[in-house]
Design brief:
The chain is α+β, with helices and mostly antiparallel strands. It has a seven-stranded mixed β-sheet with strand order 9-10-7-17-14-15-16. The longest helix has 28 residues, at 117-144.
Length: 715
């Protein structure tokens, strides 16, 4: 198994090595033998890295960042469950950059991504809450001179039943802070859960409704100026000429600052900065990547895919099994470059002084953000304060710190706060893109229509090799093979290899759903090809290959039942299925579509059955499935990033489409009750989209889609 070769935990262990020079254990539940109570703040109680109780109330120091996935609420539920408080009693505060305290135990970095947040926090935040509760009860019991076992907690109030006495957490906080942090704490059995598993209103919803929630782009500071920029259109290009005097002549412009490949105009307001950039009359030297084009990249990938790659799995002679099989299938699938294009474009606010700097930004990697500013300014990291803001979308884009790095270089000599905003056009055309993937797949089936052998060669860029070099082990990028080398199905003869091919003139990055997104499009489409080649119903074919995987079978059966899989469809309509195990979550997706006049695809109904283990907040799971599948369907239908003369052809939402409300299908989400450890849900719906869509189109038209997006395919 691929996990045995390079597990996600092991290959991401190198992330911390790459960014901080060492790997440090996360301190749980406490980072000292005794909790801290600051001098002069006798009511403050900080028993560990995550819990704080003071005059402001009960605060979760949140190790992960909120990018719209609801983690501020779900993680608060984990802590509140063991602390025995209600969710509305908990405040959430973003953790500062601190790898020692807040390193994700799965990603080995202080990072939010890979649908790991709930999986990472499942134990440590419950332990943090339980540890604090034990210390607070102990403090109250000692004050009363009674056994701690005679005390109980309800909504943050400690009660002593025999005497009827009670004390709030705040009233005993100072005493609790003097007690030793327990080394081991018992956690509740799931049967005792009071909050976990219930529908909870998101903590950030009221502030979103009334407009008080502050995203990075909303930052306002006294004396702050505004800036925007222009970047060389071709990667590696340089400024050839500009009319700086014309920009400075624009009313409200304060400064023009530049690096070799970018120039920013600082103004009293954003409009002045924008007009200043327009007035620069910029010309550019394109540099070495002026000849880069999509067709040239594709031609190179085709040639690279013909050569053997690094073997990831080689079980039981798959090639020979296919050679002897009655039915043989071969196909090439292609998945395009994609942009993240979050609705909140990239931005950051910086105040650089002689001896310190402060950053306001929405980032998935606060330690890396701090390091980027430190390196650009020459300041030590501890002199850089990071205020991590909520994000209006990220989808992996804010796992990179290139924009923060660029801002720090441009503003290093400016001594007042400046908010730098990338316009939508600069944001999209200078994105770090989801890799282009080129897949060669083969399969053989016997007389009974059973799969006897499968091969899969993935050719594409390695984000892992760039983002966490020590984790790129033996030439293998496990993310690129995720859901390709291993599937939920009964398989014995499998060969999978990986050809790393880095295209010129662009940088690739994580994108929502990462490797699973592209591989599930390929695998689930190809599974359908196998079913149709042998005259079998696609759901029945999958069902027969799930004899050893009851959780996968359960979601497939549930989705088929709720979608009415066997019901006959009118002419012009189609129904497609996709099944997956990704992010430690099982998911089946059945999609109904209609091909309308003009050969346009109309999305009708999306049915998802999900088993993500123990559910923290069912509403969050539903919302993530809905948002994820719509994000994935819209992308599969419309989107690709292409290059001409080294320049990105797409620039805004007019030519890089978002699925519109009138185009969205009805989405139904059914959750399987489970006692397994939680899996991830933030990316699972996105990964489930393209395969079901391609299979639905085949069902309606007989046309097999092997290249995305659909807007470029002849339906």
């Amino acid at each position: 198994m691929i996990e045995n070769l390079v597990s996600r935990r092991n290959f991401l262990r190198g992330t911390a090595l790459a960014t901080a020079g060492l790997v440090l254990a996360v301190q749980l539940p406490g980072n000292t033998r005794r909790a801290s109570a600051a001098v002069g703040e006798q009511s403050k109680f900080i028993p560990n890295a995550f819990v704080k109780i003071d005059d402001d109330g009960i605060t979760l120091i949140m190790p992960h960042t909120e990018v719209g996935q609801g983690i501020y609420t779900s993680s608060a539920m984990l802590m509140a469950e063991e602390l025995e408080v209600d969710l509305d009693q908990v405040r959430v505060e973003a953790a500062p950059p601190d790898l020692k305290k807040y390193m994700d135990p799965i990603l080995f970095d202080q990072a939010t991504g890979g649908s790991t947040s709930t999986q990472s926090d499942w134990v440590r935040l419950r332990e943090a809450g339980a540890s604090a509760r034990i210390m607070l009860i102990g403090a109250a019991a000692a004050r009363w001179g009674v056994p701690a076992g005679d005390c109980r907690v309800e909504k943050g109030v400690i009660h002593h039943g025999p005497s009827g006495r009670s004390l709030s957490y705040l009233e005993v906080a100072a005493d609790a802070a003097t007690r030793e942090v327990p080394k081991q704490v018992p956690l509740k059995d799931p049967s005792q859960f009071r909050l976990i598993g219930t529908k909870a209103k998101r903590l950030d919803t009221p502030a979103k409704v009334d407009g008080s929630l502050v995203y990075g782009i909303d930052t306002r500071l006294p004396g702050m100026a505004y800036a925007t920029l222009a970047i060389a259109p071709v990667k590696g290009g340089r400024i050839a000429s500009m009319n700086e005097a014309a920009a400075r002549a624009v009313k409200g412009v304060r400064e023009v600052v530049r690096t070799d490949d970018a120039v920013a105009v600082i103004g009293d307001h954003m409009w002045a900065a924008k007009l200043g950039v327009d007035a620069l009359e910029l010309t550019w030297e394109s540099g070495p990547n002026a000849s880069v084009s999509t067709q040239a990249i594709l031609d190179d990938m085709h040639e690279a895919s013909l050569k053997p790659g690094v073997v990831v799995r080689d079980d039981n002679g798959a090639a020979e099994a296919i050679r002897k099989a009655k039915t043989k299938l071969d196909a090439v699938y292609r998945s395009p470059f994609l942009s993240h294009s979050p609705l909140e474009p990239m931005n950051c606010t910086l105040h650089i002084e002689e001896d310190r700097a402060e950053l306001w930004v929405g980032t998935q990697v606060p330690v890396r953000a701090q390091k980027a500013v430190a390196e650009a300014t020459g300041l030590p990291p501890e002199k850089v304060t990071v205020n991590n803001q909520l994000m209006g979308g990220a989808f992996g884009r804010r796992l990179d710190i290139d924009t923060i790095e660029q801002a720090a270089k441009l503003l290093r000599n400016i001594r007042y706060p400046v908010k730098l905003v990338w316009t939508r056009e600069q944001d999209l055309t200078h994105d770090f893109f989801r890799p282009y993937y080129y897949d060669r797949v083969s399969a053989g089936l016997d007389d009974a229509g059973r799969l006897v052998g499968r091969t899969h060669r993935v050719t594409g860029s390695s984000v892992m090799a760039r983002w966490a070099p020590p984790a790129f082990v033996n030439g293998i990028d496990p993310d690129s093979l995720d859901c390709a080398a291993e599937t939920p199905y009964d398989e014995s003869a499998v060969f999978a290899d990986y050809v790393r091919h880095e295209p010129e003139g662009l940088t690739t990055a994580w994108w929502r759903g990462v490797g699973a997104t592209h591989n599930l499009f390929v695998m689930e489409s190809f599974i359908d090809e196998m079913a149709h080649a042998t005259g079998q119903d696609p759901v029945d074919f999958r069902r027969k290959m799930l004899t050893k995987n009851p959780r996968a079978l359960a979601v497939l059966e549930l989705a088929a039942e709720k979608a009415g899989w066997k019901e006959k469809l009118p002419k012009g309509r189609g129904r497609g299925v996709s099944l997956q195990f990704a992010f430690n979550t099982y998911l089946a997706h059945i999609l109904d579509i209609e091909v309308v006049p003009g050969k346009q695809v109309k999305l009708l109904r999306s049915v998802l059955a999900v088993d993500c283990g123990i559910v923290i907040n069912p509403d969050t799971v539903r919302a993530q499935m809905e948002g994820g599948v719509l994000f994935g369907l819209g992308t599969a239908m419309f989107n690709e990033v292409t290059f001409t003369g080294g320049v990105v052809d797409q620039s805004n939402f007019d030519n890089y489409r978002i699925l519109r409300i009138n185009e969205a299908p009805k989405v139904e989400v059914y959750q399987v009750k489970s006692v397994e450890k939680p899996g991830g849900v933030g990316e699972a719906g996105t990964a489930a989209a393209a395969g079901a869509l391609a299979n639905a189109i085949f069902s309606a038209t007989g046309k097999r889609i092997r290249s995305l997006p659909l807007s470029q395919a002849a339906v």
